[in-house]
Amino acid sequence: MNERAKKITLLITFPIMGLGLIALLVFIFAEIFVFKAPDKYAYPLGSDVLGFAADWSAKIEVEYTTFWYEKPARSFNPESTAIIKISGPADGIFRFLIPQDAMVLAKAPSSEETFKDLHAFTTAISLPAGSVKILKFRYKLPAITSAYSLTLLPGGNKVMYKVKSTFPDSAVLSSKTFKVNKTELSFSGAPIGPELLKATLEYLDSPVTFTGGKIIAPNQIELNFKRQLSQIISTDGVDFSVADLNVKNGEITDRVFIGAIKVSGNSIFISTRGMTLQRGESYKITGNNIKDTNGNILEPNPLITTLTQPGGSF
């Protein structure tokens, strides 16, 4: 190759190499500094996630509330409700994304599918400007013990999230990303990328406390407590008694017998026999060995309280 040919080759090669180097630098910069939504969102079972995927942009507001129930083994089980407000104009396919392991309890009309490893509710939306559509979903997630994480995905839309998570009194909460108010976690904002919220939980052993009760109908008594109660409570009447204090009608004294006893959440429902309709009549209620789901016993034990038939109608 003569000298003139070498010069021409170099003149062609160097610009091409320079363009290649520039392209490589642009690619590296984009990978490092520019957010790109991944093809799949991989979350471990038990993590919470909310997100949206739509082929259009619309104003979306989400109220996400979660109530946590105390479970055995010092764990907490959540039941979540998402109320989604979509403001028009909007026209296209809309997907609301939640964890794959969620157990759906109720949903707005929509089909269900797997989308990017998440559980998706898919529906067609057509809204003119100025109109609004409300979608509501309710579901449960697996129990957690020591940590809770929630990832918020904007999905290409401007989404305003309002999150409130309420725990029982047995949970001690701490977080740098949620706002913490005693047993409540909250967050409000419109993240432009995935927003990861984390909280740690500590189970607090403490006695069960009685918060009140009432006679809800003749031979029907409701007792309420501050903790989730154990289902293993004597149902044969040995640990419970109801005695008529006979303070209203001197000639009528009920002999009350325990029938069925049912535990539901923080409450005990007692069905009796022998209670007659006497407005203002009072009864002494006694209950022994009432425990929460983790074995903490009521203090003071036994429970002794007085309940009165209401003066009006049941």
Please provide a written account of the structure.
This protein is mainly β and 314 residues long. The protein has two domains: 48-203, Sandwich (Immunoglobulin-like); 210-308, Immunoglobulin-like. Helix content is 10%, strand content 49%. It has one helix at residues 3-33, and strands at 48-54, 59-71, 75-87, 90-98, 103-106, 111-115, 118-127, 132-140, 147-153, 158-166, 171-174, 179-181, 184-189, 195-203, 210-217, 220-225, 240-244, 257-264, 267-273, 282-287, 303-308. The longest helix is centred in the N-terminal third of the chain and has 31 residues, at 3-33.
Outline the secondary-structure elements.
Layout: H1 3-33, E1 48-54, E2 59-71, E3 75-87, E4 90-98, E5 103-106, E6 111-115, E7 118-127, E8 132-140, E9 147-153, E10 158-166, E11 171-174, E12 179-181, E13 184-189, E14 195-203, E15 210-217, E16 220-225, E17 240-244, E18 257-264, E19 267-273, E20 282-287, E21 303-308
Parallel strand pairs: 1-9, 2-10
Antiparallel strand pairs: 1-4, 2-3, 3-8, 4-7, 5-8, 6-7, 9-14, 10-13, 11-14, 12-13, 15-16, 16-19, 17-20, 18-19, 20-21
How is this structure best summarized?
This protein has 314 residues and is mostly beta strands.
Q: Which runs of at least 5 residues are low in confidence (pLDDT < 50)?
A: 5-17, 21-42
| Shape, principal axes of CA atoms | elongated
Q: Give the helix/strand class.
A: mainly beta
Helical percentage: under 10%
Number of domains: 2
Spatial gap, N to C terminus: 109 Å
**How confident overall, as mean pLDDT?**
81
What is the H/E string? Answer: HEEEEEEEEEEEEEEEEEEEEE
CATH class of the largest domain: Mainly Beta
Which architecture of the largest domain does the CATH hierarchy give at level 2? Sandwich
Largest sheet: 7 strands, mixed
As a percent range, the share of strand residues is over 45%
CATH fold field value of the largest domain: Immunoglobulin-like
So how many helices? Answer: 1
Strands in their spatial order, largest beta sheet: 6-7-4-1-9-14-11
E-strand count? 21
Radius of gyration over all CA atoms, rounded: 30 Å
